[in-house]
Amino acid sequence: MSHTRKHLDTIAVHAGTPTPRVLGAVVTPIFQSAMYEDDGAGAYHDIRYIRLNNTPNHAAVQAKLAALEGAEAALVTSSGMAAITTALLTVLRAGDHLLIQNSLYGGTHAFVTRDLEGLGISFSFIADDDPGSWEAKLTPATRAIYVETISNPLMRVPDLEAVAAFAKKHGLVSMIDNTFATPVNFRPVERGFDLSLHIATKYLNGHSYVASGAVVGAEGLVGRIKYKLDHLGGSLDPHACFLLERGMKTLALRVRRQNENAQKLASALDAHAAVARVHYPGLVGHPAHARSARLFDGMGGMLSLELAGGLGATDRFMHALTIPAVAPSLGGVESLVTRPALTSHSDLPPEERRALGITDSLVRVSVGIEAADDLVEDFEQALSRAA
Ligand code: PLP
């Protein structure tokens, strides 16, 4: 089938399905075999073996993902961090320098600030919406620039067009964690990015039952990352590939519903007297609202908020909610709430967290596919009980 002429909804369902179908099976079967017959005549990386990321289940899910983002190739990994670290360690070597957005997921922040230096790789943080300040941070050793499409947990939207253009101008590899946007709302490769990364644990799977990651981009670069992954060993098991492929078939339906629900919930929270601040790119008051409206097909299912009543009220609010579970992670069909200072960003030194604007009482909401009216009603009753 020709994927480029199809709509995203059709690609999500059909792309990657083996042709001809395996024994006529409508769904890609799980090939739970660690290795395949091989007489050793081919190259090492082509030996069919789970760690080498090339079973039929890898092929199916990777082809679907590449088609969804309009890219040449994709690679799945055993977690989001496996995708991020393997991609960074492919693009950078000892002596190299990285430019990276200052406000991002705690695990990525910790890897860059604690692990890269020990490997001889240096980095500089950049202000994500001030391209004029980036040139001063460049060094002759700068090789890559890294941002999140919508940042975790403050929902910042960097000047994405400027990032891709800056990378082209200076010969850098542009890397973007596209988890919060998903291919439904933003397709980085179509916008000039070299590598799009996904925490497939989140929206791509969409059901909170598998950990996985993904790297999407041009065949040559993704191929180099596959070789590194083959060596580092962060491959995804075929059963997890199957679960990921199954989840991705409903990606477009889920994400569009989550976009709608989050917009309704963000608007209701923004208008509520007990709420001091809502971070959501779909709100006109968001600093990057105009850019988001221009670049995104939807504003995503993630938002964060701060209550006017501080930490005590926040705690009462979270525990008065009856629909969302209080749990880290995101992107599933069920709504979740978490305080990043205690979970996803607890590894950051408190003073650094505060300097970034991640207060102790910030609540991150992953909006699910429940009925929007039920969610709004539940959040409003919890706010009234928190006062
Ligand atoms: N990047 C972002 C934006 C995330 O939210 C997360 C997890 O919450 C990760 C990376 C790490 O993903 P994983 O837990 O699958 O390694």
Note down, in words, how this protein is organized:
This protein has 387 residues and is an alpha/beta fold. The protein contains 13 helices and 12 strands. The strands form 2 sheets. A 7-stranded mixed beta sheet has the order 1-7-6-5-4-2-3, with helices on both faces. A 5-stranded mixed beta sheet has the order 8-9-12-11-10. Helix 5 (160-170) links the parallel strand 4 and strand 5. Helix 2 (56-68) runs parallel beside helix 8 and helix 3 (80-91) packs across helix 7 (219-232). It starts with 7 loop residues before the first helix and ends with a helix. The mean pLDDT is 96. Pyridoxal-5'-phosphate binds next to helix 3 and helix 4.
Q: Ligands bound here?
A: pyridoxal-5'-phosphate
Placed side by side, the strands forming the largest sheet appear as: 1-7-6-5-4-2-3
- Order of H and E elements: HHEHEHEEHEHEEHHHEHEHEEHEH
Radius of gyration: 21 Å
Total E-strand runs: 12
The profile of the biggest β sheet is:
7 strands, mixed
Mean pLDDT across residues:
96
Helical percent range? Answer: 25-40%
> Number of helical runs?
13
Strand content: 5-15%
Shape: globular
pLDDT < 50 runs, ≥5 residues = none
Structural class: alpha/beta
Separation of the first and last Cα atoms = 56 Å
